[in-house]
């Protein structure tokens, strides 16, 4: 029997799944109107989906993670490659700001692959969609902006040996950099791609182990030690955690604004994303807010944003203990 | 040289500790993507492949002139996608890479003769393969993954296709007569030894797919094919087990 938000002209009764397909908006509204409000998947308004993180499954990568957030599955692989300082066309200034060094040299390269058949909207064989490109950009901005990796951790230094006693102490110079390529591939998508992608990036970076690299002056090349004991974890300086919220609203240009009801749904899945016109993503680390991203919509106000930020801090506590 | 180490000549153990006729660990999951008509994730050792099936769906081409007498059967289109992290070097393959096109064509023709395509006239069945990790036996793994995905999609076929690779140690054996046939070749062995990929239904002696790209002595070939067919039978047994287990779980209502 269908729950009817408005009296139907004919007495038809649909099974649940048909109702969900025919009128997804009223279907979600019928669930949210209950007291307490509940979502079709059975979650509460502020409940995240169950997540599963598996690391180290890819053999050829320096770090990898497979993350499942409900039915959204994402694989992230981190591969390090050497960039010789001599190959950089316009080397940065000695006094260049550390913050910009990473970005100028492009040492962190994320790429999101959505056209894998992960959902009917993302069929394989197509060039990257707007969503894929904007997700790649968001991940990139967060990687550089959160200063999770310092350029010093990626530098390969070399100190020339002292030849004469009278010479000054040799200055260590940067001979090469590690460039980290982060390939994020969606295996299945059921809403909230950004949170899943970022969780995979964090898990992969935390378990990335790079070999010990040194500059060989005779060969003029970087040599890596193959010994497993010499592989070292990356030093991560922050632990950004993201949370995405969608807003479902019954606001209608034909109705009074005061009559509209709205609910903020945490970690939306595809069926909820399709009927929500407004979304908000908050990124926090510890006690700092690293970013808030909201594009469009007119329902969320000050209190709702603050509430979402509080929820994200709570999420941070939960996730930072789960991350490997 | 994978077999130069003393472990092989003395103890007959390969680099990864297997004997000549041992398969690597095969594991799979069906219906990994709810959005696709059929999907499967297949692992053969460290070679990992995801296959999704879309179809049968309406063909894009509208054969107005040639629809009546000409071939009306469905077509099988295959697309192979190498993930950047699949090989030791991070390399994005160009779209029109010939090697990839050849792989896709081999898989497509293998299934064109196996699937009952006359049941779906004027439609297209699209197979998309995502290679997550390459560690030898790529074509065989792709064929096995595609079989499972097609079974998950419910597309009828004459018999499931199982594939395996075999190599011969003839060039490196002390005594030519003692050359061994190795089953299920991994990366390092593929580079050094002549190997072939063979696929069949696992019943009888029929060979559905045979790809040999290296030089082998005539006398070795029969032995390799014989061991290959035995390997195909065992892989077919493994695939059957995987499908049955998935079926049991579906019946118990644990899978959607």
What does this structure look like?
The complex is a heterodimer of chains A (324) and B (256). Chain A has 324 residues and is of the alpha+beta class. Chain A is built from seven helices and 14 strands. Chain A has helices spanning 16-22, 24-32, 98-105, 130-145, 193-206, 270-275, 302-322, and strands spanning 51-55, 63-69, 72-84, 108-113, 155-158, 173-188, 209-210, 213-216, 221-224, 232-233, 241-249, 262-266, 278-285, 288-294. In chain A, strands 1, 2, 3, 4, 5 and 6 form a six-stranded mixed beta sheet that branches. In chain A, strands 12-11-13-14 form a four-stranded antiparallel beta sheet, with helices on both faces. In chain A, strand 2 (63-69) and strand 3 form a beta hairpin. In chain A, helix 1 crosses helix 2 (24-32). The model of chain A has no long low-confidence stretch (mean pLDDT 86). Chain B starts with 5 loop residues before the first helix and ends in a 5-residue tail after the last helix. In chain B, strand 2 and strand 3 form a beta hairpin. Helix content of chain B is 30%, strand content 25%. By secondary structure, chain B is of the alpha+beta class. Chain B has five helices and nine strands, in the order αββββαβαββαββα. Chain B has helices at 6-11, 98-112, 138-153, 187-192, 218-251, and strands at residues 26-30, 38-44, 47-58, 75-82, 123-133, 162-168, 181-183, 195-200, 209-212. Chain B has one domain (17-60, 73-252): Ribosomal Protein S5, domain 2, CATH 3.30.230. The longest helix of chain B is centred in the C-terminal third of the chain and has 34 residues, at 218-251. Chain B has a five-stranded mixed beta sheet, with helices on one face. Chain B has a four-stranded antiparallel beta sheet with strand order 7-6-8-9. The chains are: A alpha+beta (324), B alpha+beta (256). Chains A and B meet through strand 3 and strand 6 of A and strand 3 and strand 5 of B.
